[in-house]
Amino acid sequence: MTAGADPVLAGIVDNRLHAIAEQMAQAMLRSCRSMVFQSRDFVTGIFTARGEWVATKDYIPVLAGSLPSALAGVTGRFAAEFAAGDLHEGDVFVLNDPYHGNNHPPDITILKPVFHRGTHRFWAVTKGHHADTGGAVVGYNPYARDCWEDALRIPPVRLHHRGRRQRDVWDLILLNLRLPDVVEADLDCQIGAATLGERELVALLDTYGVEPVEEAVAYQLEASRRHMRAEIGRLPDGVYRSVRHLDDGGAHHREPIAVRLELTIRGESALFDFTGSDPQVVGYANSTLANTTAAVLIGLLGVTDPTQRRTSGALAAVDIRTTPGTIVHAVEPAATSLCTLTACETIVETVWAAVGQADPAVTNAAWCRGYTFAAMGVDARTGRPFAVTGAMKGGSGATAGFDGWDAVGPPVAMGGGREIDVELHELTAPTTVLSQEYEIDSAGAGRWRGGLGAVSRWRIDQDDLSVLCIGSGALDLTAPFGVAGGSTAPANRGVVHHADGRISHPPTNCLLRLDRGDVVEIHTSGGGGFGDPFDRPAEAVADDVRDGLVSPTAARDVYGVVLDPITGEPDTAATDARRAAAPSR
Description:
Layout: H1 7-31, H2 35-38, E1 42-48, E2 53-58, H3 61-64, H4 67-77, H5 79-83, E3 92-95, E4 107-116, E5 119-129, H6 147-150, E6 157-161, E7 164-165, H7 167-174, H8 180-208, H9 210-233, E8 238-246, E9 257-266, E10 269-273, H10 289-301, H11 312-316, E11 318-321, H12 342-358, E12 371-379, E13 384-389, H13 422-428, E14 431-438, E15 454-460, E16 465-471, E17 493-497, E18 503-504, E19 510-514, E20 519-524, H14 538-546, H15 552-557, H16 572-581
């Protein structure tokens, strides 16, 4: 550990830094404009002046894991200016370009230097998914062939200089958007949160002094590195290989795309080698290196001690190798907007599948993948543009000893997202939410079952609306896998009930035109199961049937549990006989 550091003070400072990140996040939640931010699709972070990641509030972990590369993009672009002293109190920088350190274009990063008595000491950083970042389609463009069709590219630039708003930069960004007022308000929300962080960090330095705080930060970073290495050391040495697939790359690439991982564990070191993955594609599902790094961190933190801090110390314990020009390390001009969903989920699954080979007891069965519909256009009621997304709430995978969480969402958020109020959905867009509910038999069966998926239905209340179907996990190949004999969960699927009586099943990653009275039906998968379903206690299966989570048919055919048709209680003799007569499992 760092010589001279006070361990007690180090703990106090560490907790205070994370509390400041939490304060920043709460400020964003209370002052944001868009429905996307209200769903908590944002993160905050604190970095030292040297670029060390020391604290975060990661509602959406895939955003948090790419903060270090975003900061590196800014400091790299302005290296000469900063060296010449052109970094000032009141400066604010902005970035969304995936080829300047960002993860994907919809997530815009705001970075503010924090000065204490004239010296640069910290960075306060916020990143959020914006309702509009330009391009041919609001939000996601499944027809994008390159990064220019994908979205407006914002390289590292100053939004504020010495506290003054750079109006020309603001105009250049906002004039390229369909929802400029919403985006401007959310950018101001991010800047306000960073300013709050700046104030609290200055107060921290005033309270404890610069040198003690810097020593405490160094102590905690080293502790974080050691913690991660110790967690890796719990896994048996070996080489473990896994392959998972994206459904497709968008409208121009309708074939599954393989992510291949070779995980090597040696003592307290872990090498994540993705060099055998498929080439990048013409489409918007390609992953940037920043996104791949974030996904690996999600996967690793999901199977190790959950109390670990997300810091540069933890990242330093991990070695990630990729080949530029592949699906996990896209190079310009590849489109990348969908990568924080489909590519991230696929990468996380490869990590969990590989770790499951090393030690099934510590891994997860696969979670649902993100899959939803989004509507956009001009609301005839108000004359204002809008964009709204349906529920994205599938189940998490089971683990040894625990069922999965129901309708918690995909692993990119790890449960950190929040469902938007139905009333707000209907106020914002010409739609009516008809129902949102758990879907029976949507979880992968097992000794511990996966979390349930959901089905949501909403009606289009205006003619000729653009509706996107986006996501992954709609193929048997990409449905959430089970572990240690657990069952795979059903795949995602979408149905459109047209007002004229037709029923259609749109493919993933396509753009539809729907009319008044059409009903969109979104079925999100549950999580995979863990362990043999026949080992699940009959009483637990009966409880699930009683609660409407498992059907009596599935109880009998999948779990081998026969229920009394009157009382609903397990018929012990019939259950034992059915399970005993089943083929060897």
